[in-house]
Specification:
By secondary structure, the protein is mainly beta. It has 4 domains: 144 residues, Immunoglobulins (Immunoglobulin-like, Sandwich); 373 residues, Neuraminidase (6 Propeller), CATH 2.120.10; 113 residues, Immunoglobulin-like (Sandwich), CATH 2.60.40; 88 residues, Immunoglobulin-like, CATH 2.60.40.1930. The protein contains 4 helices and 55 strands. A hairpin with a 5-residue loop joins strand 11 and strand 12. It is globular and about 85 Å long. The two termini are 41 Å apart.
Length: 793
């Protein structure tokens, strides 16, 4: 959902003022640290002389709101310090997830931030939930509002879009891969089902200027000559309507050549609508690893497409993201198909498509990009960046500066703390602020949704005053998991004030066996307005034992006042926590099979595990878990016991054979744990994504499993449910309501052959159920299938 850049009413004289400051900054950006320090000191001393003459050597009493305006007008460079603190916005016992691809799960208007997410508190169902909060006031929620239920699909897209106070959320249901949309206009309306019969997924949505909602998604076909594989379809819901138009194929990857009998996959479309209400879609596909721009200028009735770059240009299974600026220039984010893929942005701003690499990290992978444009035509992009051996992902970002006309640099939004920070989604509001949310496992390995926001370039006609505001924007070390080895504590200080300023920092570490209280090694630090710098403190060695937790508190003081009483004392102190790593830790360090991005019909998973703790690991298990988004697909989980693994010792583990039954991407996750009701993880997980293709004969075995309603549907008093099972096997047939709750078990035990069961519309207690839609599912150890039925009263 590209935000249109209107400039928010900023006057031309302020545009010129900002441009002059940025040009001045560009001239001085290459100065070394000592020259910059000398220049800052000279300017600071001059400022002190002037203030002494005026008799105003005191704290500024200008309101904070006006101070911010002054800071932003004078900021020399894009200020990383303008990011606020990470904020956890979900808090429940199950995992909660943002989306990895396609549509945005976060949106913002002039007053509020809106987020959609998947809640896995119920292991059987992933609930689609929504919450909102005022800009600048994020709030924690245990549950949010439940919008709908989904029976799986760990990393589905759940896009959200807003227009004049109307909120729409789209998702797809795992059992039949049906699409659903729900709209809130004061209150939530009914769930709208749409799509192309079955096998639809990965929706992305955007509004046009009239409030019409445009939805693009994937549809799968196994039929030769019928866009075999996954193509891109489109549907339109007019403003205020309760249904969608008939689906139209927007793009078939076979149009780029190849055999009609070959399955091609145009995965994870993304959509934006420009100011002329033209629809623009980005997508990549595996018929040559092409990046496509697909567009319609007649409201989705007809579609055109063009190839950006050439063959082997974009990785089709890592998602794309599209946005536009106020001049309707397009920006498409994508990952390249290399073995250590990086993230790029292609734009047609110059009249032809030009690509720029925006990720710089030299680790294994960078992918799952999300892109947006703010109201000042700055372009923001985030992505997943794997660290080290690729076992942990962190959220990185980059920014295109509209004034200088250049990209910045690869920056980490989350730190390498040994926890997952993934699936970031960007959005810009109408005031120039930028918002981001992501999935994070920092809370005892339980995935939660985290949020942060970047204060935008809001400008008014008021002359911006100067003020004093030093802040600790981030603690670098120590935090997260630490070893019992010397570490140099460090943090980042920023000057949010309106002029050159000076200060110093103190680091206090408290916890078992320690009372550390030291000043920064650099002494007095001088910073220009809008500048930040890292400071370090004397070495510290954790004195405790594995599991001991330490509070790390860094404070910046004004100099020469030696106080934190500036215009915003709340940001002068930053607190993080560090925990000594467990003495026993076993990490998955390398996946041998499957290979990242490979196409697999069957295999024997294999991975290497290493004991990285200080003590031997005894009597644990190594696990391999394989999941996908296909409703034919059974989850795979195998474990191999390990009696002993000494520190620094590595072991190679081979798991049971896995056989593919559906043409979908799969995620294989490897980890070590102690088994129990809930696995106790011993170290870092490692995962790879690969493409599955059914092994010959498996599809026929899946088709032998059948469930359908052969009696009245809809029904009032009772109906027949027919089933077919290919061979004797333990089988369960259950009825679920739309929230995913089991309301009736029709059979539990061995079944073989075909037969029918009668359901009278009651629950397991014999109570009459409310009228509405229900799902009847047949479940075997290998596969599941689902039918729908409507109960009337």
């Amino acid at each position: 959902m590209g935000v249109r850049g209107t400039g928010c009413g900023m006057k031309s004289r302020w545009r010129r003022a900002i441009r002059r400051e940025l040009e001045w900054s560009a001239q001085h950006r290459g100065e070394d640290r000592e020259k910059r320090r000398g220049r800052c000191i000279s300017r600071f001393l001059e400022k002190l002389k002037n203030k002494a003459k005026e008799g105003i050597m005191r704290k500024s009493i200008v309101p904070k709101t006006l101070l911010i305006l002054g800071v932003l007008a004078l900021a020399a460079v894009p200020l990383f310090g303008q990011w606020h603190s990470d904020f956890r916005v979900t808090n429940n016992t199950g995992g909660t997830y943002t989306a990895a691809y396609g549509g945005w799960v976060i949106a913002a208007d002039d007053a509020n931030v809106h987020i959609a997410y998947k809640d896995n508190t119920n292991v059987l169902n992933y609930y689609v939930r929504y919450f909102t909060f005022p800009i600048g006031s994020p709030a924690e929620t245990p549950n949010g509002e439940m919008i709908g239920a989904d029976d799986g699909g760990h990393h589905n897209s759940i896009p959200i879009a807003i227009h004049d106070g109307t909120v729409d959320i789209s998702w797809y249901s795992h059992p039949l891969s049906h699409l659903y949309t729900r709209e809130k206009n004061g209150s939530w309306g009914s769930i709208i089902e749409h799509g192309v019969d079955v096998d639809c997924c990965c929706p992305a949505i955007a509004f046009d200027s009239d409030g019409n909602l445009h939805n693009v998604f994937n549809h799968y076909s196994s039929t030769t000559g019928d866009a075999k594989g996954r193509s891109v379809y489109y549907q339109r819901k007019n403003s205020g309507a309760s249904s969608y138009s008939s689906p139209i194929m927007a793009f078939d990857p076979h149009s780029d050549g190849g055999s009609s009998s070959t399955e091609y996959f145009a995965y994870y479309p993304s959509i934006c609508v420009t100011s002329d209400d033209a629809l623009h879609v980005s997508v990549a596909h595996n018929n040559g690893n092409l990046l496509k721009h697909v567009w319609s200028t007649d409201g989705g009735a007809t579609w055109n497409n063009e190839t950006i770059g050439g063959t082997n240009f974009a990785r089709y299974d890592r998602g794309t993201s599209i946005c536009h600026d106020s001049d309707d220039n397009l920006y498409i984010a994508y990952a390249d198909p290399g073995s250590a893929c990086q993230v790029y942005v292609a734009t047609n701003a110059s009249g032809s498509w030009v690509s720029t690499q925006v990720s710089e990290y030299t680790g294994n992978y960078a992918y799952w990009p999300s892109i947006c444009c703010d109201t000042f035509n700055n372009v923001w992009i985030s992505w997943d960046s794997r660290w080290g051996s690729g076992s942990i992902s962190e959220t990185h970002y980059n920014k295109y500066d509209a004034v200088s006309g250049s990209w910045g640099y690869d920056q980490a939004l989350t730190l390498n703390d040994g926890k997952y920070s993934r699936y970031a989604n960007f959005a810009a509001d109408e005031k120039g602020n930028v918002h981001i949310c992501w999935t994070d496992s920092r809370d005892d390995n339980n995935f939660e949704v985290y949020y942060n926001w970047f204060l935008g370039d809001t400008i008014t006609d008021t002359v911006p005053p100067s003020g004093r505001d030093l802040a600790i924007v981030r603690i670098l070390k120590p935090l997260g998991k630490v070893d019992k080895v010397p570490v140099t504590p460090s943090a980042v200080i920023a000057n949010f004030g309106g002029d050159v300023d000076s200060g110093y920092a103190m680091c206090r570490i408290t916890g078992p066996g320690v009372n550390y209280d030291k000043g920064n090694l650099e002494g007095i630090v001088y910073l220009d307005a809008g500048e930040e710098d890292a400071v370090s403190f004397p070495s510290w060695t954790p004195p405790g034992w594995p599991g001991d937790r330490y509070k790390v508190e860094v404070t910046v003081y004004l100099w020469p006042e030696k106080t934190i009483e500036d215009d915003d004392p709340t940001n002068n102190i930053k607190v993080e926590y560090a925990t000594i790593q467990s003495a026993v830790q076993v990490d998955a360090i390398e996946v041998v099979k499957p290979e990242e991005g490979s196409v697999v019909d069957s295999m024997t998973p294999e991975a290497n595990f290493k004991s990285v703790g200080t003590e031997a690991a005894e009597n644990f298990y190594c696990y391999c878990e394989i999941v996908s988004q296909g409703y034919h697909t059974a989850d795979y989980l195998d474990s191999v016991p390990v009696a002993n693994l000494d520190p620094e010792e590595t072991t190679n583990i081979t798991f049971a054979e896995w056989v593919c039954d559906d043409s979908l991407p799969y995620i294989a996750t490897f980890f070590a744990a102690i088994p129990g009701a809930t696995h106790t993880l011993l170290g870092r997980k490692l995962f790879v994504v690969f493409q599955g293709t059914p092994l010959v004969g498996v599809a026929e075995e899946v088709d032998a499993l059948r469930i359908e309603v052969t009696g009245p549907n809809p029904f009032c008093s009772g109906t027949l449910v027919s089933y077919s099972v290919g061979y004797p096997i333990s089988t369960t047939i259950r009825v679920y309501d739309v929230t995913g709750k089991v309301v009736r078990t029709l059979h539990a035990g061995e079944l073989s052959g075909s037969g029918s069961l009668y359901w009278d519309g009651t629950d397991d207690a014999g109570a009459e159920l409310a009228g509405g839609l229900y799902f009847i599912r047949i479940i075997t150890p290998g596969f599941t299938k689902t039918a729908k039925v409507v109960l009337l009263h």
